[in-house]
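Exam revision sheet. Question 4 asks you to relate a sequence to its structure. Input first:
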Amino acid sequence: MAEKNSPKKHGKSGDAREERLKAALKANMARRKAQAKARATQNDSADKDEG
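Answer key, structure tokens:
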């Protein structure tokens, strides 16, 4: 059984990937927070209308 020992490349490309992932996560969290806030506002207005 032959195993390939290819060293994983860490460096500029790895850092660029980390930065892209970090930016994508931040954008996703902001979008989800905005959606939750909109839902909460929508539910509050619906509760007030019922009376």
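Marking note for examiners. The two ends are 73 Å apart (CA to CA).
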